[in-house]
Design brief:
This protein is an alpha/beta fold. Helix content is 43%, strand content 18%. Helix 7 runs antiparallel to helix 8 and helix 10 packs across helix 11.
């Protein structure tokens, strides 16, 4: 019986690969790669001659029986286009199938965009939630962010350049003006770290290019309940002429209270004599 190795590959800089990963890739009977073109670049650099087949979201169901058959007698190394396979990349179904059949699964750790961006963000690393890519649809995206709004944990997202602006706009609208860090093209030639507020990130990345990792601070741990003080602050903001959207966003950021709860309180304050 062979072993399935989950091998982390570089997220950009080809030097970010471990000696153990190189040995496993050279010794395995077969390498299953999310993108064989990217894999061949790595193979050429390090003289890896192991047989290579594709394994991605569009063929993973069809490939599964073949890989399980190979694992009956040989080791298989699974690699994604970048980073650790199975984390926002193909691999989950293969791991589950191996576990169910008693096939040994061994992770080979290495580069990670999540940890790389988080470590350099300047935001709390004591606890964090990784949410993968933000939902493509606005309604789904906003519902997710509303559920996350009161949580104290640092939030980590991935985002594509063509959806970055809309994602940042919803972050500001739902979570308020929080501090955040953005890692762009991590470990690559044009690597960039941005640190500031959500509005500043929107302005800075007006023409986004590359791959983005977003790190957003968790909800402030101040007021936990919608009490008289919060209601009085809503009334004060209303009297100052702020719109509901602006007032609710500000207090959601300051208190960590859900926006829906604050909006109901705003409507109550509006009806009050």
């Amino acid at each position: 019986m062979g072993t399935l190795y989950l091998v982390a590959t570089p997220i950009g800089n080809l030097e970010d690969i471990t000696l153990r990963a190189l040995r496993v890739l050279k010794e395995a009977g077969l390498v299953a790669a999310e993108d064989t073109r990217t894999a061949r670049i790595l193979f050429r650099k390090y003289g890896i001659e192991t047989p290579l087949i594709s394994y991605h979201d569009y063929n993973k169901k069809a490939r599964l029986p073949r890989l399980l058959e190979v694992l009956q007698g040989k080791d298989v190394a699974l690699i994604s286009e970048a980073g650790m396979p199975g984390i926002s990349d193909p691999g989950y179904e293969l791991v589950v199938a191996c576990v169910e059949r008693g096939i040994k699964v061994v992770p080979i750790p290495g580069a990670s965009a999540i940890i790389t961006a988080l470590a350099a963000s300047g935001l709390s690393t004591n606890s964090f939630l990784y949410l993968g890519f933000l939902p493509r649809k606005k309604g789904e995206r906003r519902r997710l962010l509303e559920a996350l709004a009161p949580l104290p944990h640092t939030l980590v997202f991935m985002e594509a350049p063509h959806r970055l602006s809309k994602g940042l706009e919803d972050l500001r609208e739902v979570l308020g003006e929080r501090r955040m860090a953005v890692g762009r093209e991590l470990t690559k030639l044009h690597e960039e770290f941005f640190r500031g507020t959500v509005s500043q990130a929107l302005e800075h990345f007006s023409q986004p290019r590359g791959e983005f990792t977003l790190i957003v601070e968790g909800a402030p741990q101040g007021t936990k309940e919608l009490g008289p003080e919060v209601e009085a602050e809503l009334l004060r903001l209303r009297q100052e002429g702020l719109r509901a959207k602006e007032a609710v966003a500000r207090l959601a950021s300051e208190t960590g209270l859900p926006r829906r709860e604050l909006y109901r309180a705003w409507l109550g304050a509006k009806r009050a004599p």
